[in-house]
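COMPLEX REQUEST
Ligand: DQA
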Amino acid sequence: DTIFILNGPNLNLLGQREPQIYGHETLADVEALCAAEAGPRGLKVVLRQTNHEGEMIDWVHEARHAAAGIVINPAAWTHTSVALLDALNAYEGPVIEVHISNVHKREAFRHHSYVSLRAEGVIAGLGIEGYALATRRICTLLGRG
Ligand code: DQA
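STATUS: Structure written out below.
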């Protein structure tokens, strides 16, 4: 089985973008951390990033037949996208929402998440380690803990 690790806008710049907030590690490091959690539990990870909302929605639709669970950092779409929430509501497997930064310590517009209405759980402020913990939780929810 496969876990999708989906990343929204500007996260292609992870490691270069506002490193005081998001750190120096890259999405390649995220992928390695997630694979290290999932692999020994018999699961594969597929990590993707897009700056295009429709592409993200298409990937959530694809997950309906291609992924047993989803770890998602929706980035700015967290706070804006009813369309992404609707796509996730059409997905049946477990979903964990991840934010690298502690969104609750930041601007008020980051305090609300549409995706949280769907997610089994939310991790914020633990840096990229949050992705590893989220992947591990998906494994547990799939009975592969
Ligand atoms: C983020 C937090 C969002 O508010 C922001 O728009 C991002 C990244 C995070 O990982 O901390 O792009 O999702």
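REMARKS: The radius of gyration is 14 Å. The chain has one domain: 2-141.
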